[in-house]
Amino acid sequence: MTTNPVTATDLPGVFAVPPLARKAEAGRPIDFDENDRIVGHMASGGLTRFLYGGNAFLYHVTLGEYEELLGWLSGLDGWAIPSLGPSFGRAMDQAALLKRHRFRCAMALPCADPRDASGLEAGLREIAEAAGLGLIVYLKDERNFGPDLEAGLDAVARLVDAGVCMAIKYAVVRPDPRQDPYLESLLRRVDRGLVVSGIGERPALAHMTGFGLRSFTTGSGCLAPSLTTSLFEACTRGDVDAAEETRAVFLPLEDRRDAWGPARVLHAAFELAGVARTGPIPPFVTGLPEDLRAVLAPVARELHERDLARRTSAPAASRPAGAGDGRAGR
Q: How far apart are CA 229 and CA 207, in angstroms?
């Protein structure tokens, strides 16, 4: 596991946000063998940053499961990033466990409970101190830092200046991601190199070419890692046509995720594509019903097959190299 401190120069790239496989047994225990398989699949397509958060349903993980997960993540090749929260009390309990390891940072899951900008700022400072590491702040909604939007962004900027916030996962959905005054306001306060486009492939091109962001997160790209790496490379070199062509390949799966629930669709897609047995989903979310799984199956398989075809057809110089299989040495 990579353990050196995070700087802005470390952030450009793709952050994979994968599902977390579980066994179809009493209590739905985490299936680390299948999770090794998922990480190996992502690494084989060039991904080396593994952010475990919403797609892994960490909102609902037990403290015992969290401790097991941290032990597994600490043995991964590459950059492993756990999440914590979203409540203050749960995050403080998890911070004590995080401090036993040497993670570079953790992501604070967005809180939907009573909150305001000053209260969140104070809480995140305490959490970071208790964990002994910096945080990725997750902006999923304009009101994540309370109803006063400008006060919320001021709080985020102070957290960046204090070294508490190492990066910002920006995931506020817009009808047109090219038009985003809230993002513009954020970028007037913080270095745009610290802001990660956090909604997958759909807005990645607009965020990277229109706002100068240098990284994005991916859920669907966990299934198609070579293709999402290709999209990042096209965005980085400003090749809009190539980026649009690759982005379009992801939209059928992204459309289903938007319609039926991003995390539960991704969870099912891995299994339906034959990559890994992801198993059941923990409460409070239900798994995808059989009629929707039947619709999803050909979409997931096609994306996976196109990713494998891309690896075969890519010139040797552009193929990912040296990534290893990403798995823990267990």
A: 16
Give the largest CA-CA distance in the chain: 53
Alpha-carbon Rg for the chain, nearest whole angstrom, is: 19
DSSP codes joined into one string, 194-250: GEEE-S-STTHHIIIIIS---EEEESHHHHSHHHHHHHHHHHHTT-HHHHHHHHHHH
pTM (2 d.p.)? 0.94
Any idea which fold 8-312 has? TIM Barrel (3.20.20)
Return the pLDDT at 106.
98
Element (H, E) at 318: none
Q: What is the mean pLDDT of the chain?
A: 94
Q: What is the dihedral of CA 83, 89, 94, 96, to 10 degrees?
A: 140
Contact predicate 45/306, CB 8 Å: no
Please count the other Cβ atoms lying within 10 Å of the Cβ belonging to residue 313.
7
Kindly state the helix (H) or strand (E) to which residue 41 belongs, with its residue range: helix 32-44
Give the whole-angstrom CA distance, residue 175 versus residue 6. Answer: 32
261 Cβ partners below 8 Å, 6+ apart? Answer: 285, 288
Residue 320 is predicted with a pLDDT of 41
Mean pLDDT along residues 11-28: 98
Listed by start position, the domains of the chain span 8-312
Could you give phi then psi for residue 247, rounded to 5 degrees? Answer: -55, -40
Angle CA(140)–CA(296)–CA(266) in degrees, nearest 5?
A: 35
List strand residue ranges (DSSP E) for the chain, in order.
13-16, 49-52, 79-84, 105-108, 134-139, 165-170, 195-197, 215-218
Coil vs helix vs strand at 278: coil
- Average pLDDT of 154-182? 98
pLDDT at 329: 38
Residues 222-247: what's their mean pLDDT?
Answer: 98
**10: phi then psi, degrees, rounded to nearest 5:** -85, -15
